[in-house]
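Minutes, project check-in
Item: structure for the 814-residue chain
Input as provided by the requester:
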Amino acid sequence: MWCSCCYALILLLWTSSGGCTGKANMSELIQVTSADFYEKLHSGKMMFIYFELQVRCLPVSPSLALFLVELEKSAEALKDYGVLVGKVLNCNREHVHMYCTDHRRAHTAFLFRGGKEFSGFDLDTVFDVNSIVSEVLFAVLRDEVKYVHTDADLVALEKSCRGRKDMVLGYVSSLGSPEHRSMMESAYVYGSKYQFILITGGPVLKHLGVNDASFSSRVWFLHCRLNDGVAVSPRCPLTLMKKHLSTLSLHSFLQLMEAPLVSEVYDDPPLVPPPQFPYQNTPQVFLFAHPATAHLDRDTASALAWNLRGVALVLLVHSRRSAAQTEYNAAYRRPEESLEVKYLTLHSLDELLQLFKDEGQEDEEEEDEEEEGSHHESLDDEISAYVHDKRGEVPDMDSITEITSDNLLTVVSQNPLTVALFYLKWDAVSLTVLSSFIHVAHRLEDLEVDHVLMGAVDCGEWSDLCAHVTSQPITTFPCVLLLRHHQPAQEYRGMLGSEALHRFIMMSVSAAPLLLSTTDSVVSFLQGALVAHRVLGLFLSHTHSDVSVFTEASETLRGDVLTGLLTPQLALTWAADHHVDPPVVLVFPSWRPLSSSSLSISSSADELLESIRAALHPPLPEVTVESLPLLLSQGKAFLMLFLGEDEDAVGQKQNELLLEEMLALVERGAEKMEPYLSCWIHLGHTPAAGDVLAALLGMPPPPLPALVLSHIPSRNEVYQFPPSRHVSASAVLQWLQSVEEGAELPAGMLAEDSWPPAGGFYDFLKVMDSQENISSLEEEEEDDEDEEEKVDVREHLVSKETTDDKRPDTHWEL
């Protein structure tokens, strides 16, 4: 069992070995002694302190260890706001009255201000650097930042600020989130200038026209000071910040709110200088004024400016009528494009509003010009675009064998293993996989693997072969089959990239099971170069019926798992060394290669297969492109932890602690966790994780880590574990119970996509034969004679007997 001293030693080794380099957060975290605490307390400085009460030889909980990591990261951030962050390392030695004597305070961090305790924070509410900074600043600014619950509260604040101060209203989905931190940091800087208001939902959103169930964090600017040209109304005018809430975007937005509503200039637009700091990245919109209608033009410009507030700067141009002004009535300039001014003829202001409805959006006319002749806009993703570009390009096939109905039997009988790709020449995906297939052939040739023949079948030309090589016609292309003489055809169901296919072939070359007769051969088998699952069968006699069960299971696992069969004498020795009783099967998973689990021999190969696959399945699998199909096939609800990239040792430690907590959840939940597949996905390993999370929640991806429940059988709802709560085994179990009872609201819905085959099997030869039959009776007789001379593949296919009603993966033998 881990003890606190062991954890401290590991943390010390981790930091000394490079865990903190450069300007690290550890340098800002102060280690407080009893004397230091009282000295700093009476110095008047604000302090955020955790009193760590260590109990000898009791483990440090993952949640506490994670908090300590985040405490280090928050020290530098809070230093900018005059808050010292530290901890009393060991209350057993550094006795601080009232804080080191109460075990209940071990789950609380404290903020001290003005020489006394100011506020306490439960560790569940300050679980990461964002929540620590936001909660501390929220406590410090609690008299300045107002938290409103109802629209009446907001009306009262608007009345109190009318004519003297503008207001900044922020909606955050939860306290302690990065958006909450951005609001508090901005309030700390601009609090004396604006009245900051915070809401987390409720009736106030109805006034804003928002459905809080589907709205992400946003900010509104309430113009409550008297503005020239703006009629006084019962409510302050609102301006919504279009960008996602962050400290930088809010800073830029507030600067734009200080810009003049309408600027009047007396030069033509090309001569007007571009916006200066801090508006240098803001587009300019020019409206042309006429002497006879100057007053109305000002009103029009003001109305447009209110609609473009925070998006563009509006300028009213008073200059002599140039050629441009005679033909056009408006113009605009985007600083990110160039200093070029583009002129427009507008029939209504709505046209201009549509143009600038999204800041930074490209001009629609330019988009049409750029995309003219391009087909990629209709393609789903980068893969579709790639295969679209590669359509019609048939690669050089000299390194592989063309398989036809005429040579199939010869090819298979003369080679221990034939790997056949069934493809369509006009299908872009088939041709892309064909290139990978040829690449694998080159690699096998370089490795001098001469007992594997790589071949391809063009199903557009040899449709009879593609229709009868297995029990059902091949209708999904491309398709890869492994063919052995007098053995069932084996379909490859893995990824069609060159790496995955090459790995599968190399694992299929060995016998299944491989007979092992010496200790050295067993060691070589277990320590092979391939990172793969391995299974050993230990039997005292190879004539026993249990061996046939193991052999049949090994054949099914071929390509995915390496299997070995020890000779009886060696099995007896090996069993004694590993304290097992034969007959027994030892399973060595790739994710835990140095240890094994033992399985009893089942009565059937199917039962043994199920036991082996269960033993190979990790308790907390990682979701990758390769593993996803297998994980989905289990039919369980996904409880998936999304982890961010390990930017430094601190981030890596945080991810490790979260994974430990998820493992504890699986172990502690036991039967309660049976309906769920607990897993994790890492943004650094699988960059698409962010897009997956956004698709599940139907919104921009939230900050990581994030815990999501999805793919619930017979249900399409997606649930997100509250970001404001720390991911712990007990908290997640409680949350899952609430989901089951219907007490939690879904955060998104899964799309009901169906991906059937593009079409049924099309027998081109049969159609051609039918056309020839209609054309001439004489040709029909000649065709019949020719058909009798042809080799019927089905005559050389033997039906494999099955003992159950389940359709086997491969039905026919050559």
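Outcome recorded: Residues 401-616 form a domain with the Glutaredoxin fold (CATH 3.40.30.10).
No further action items on this chain.
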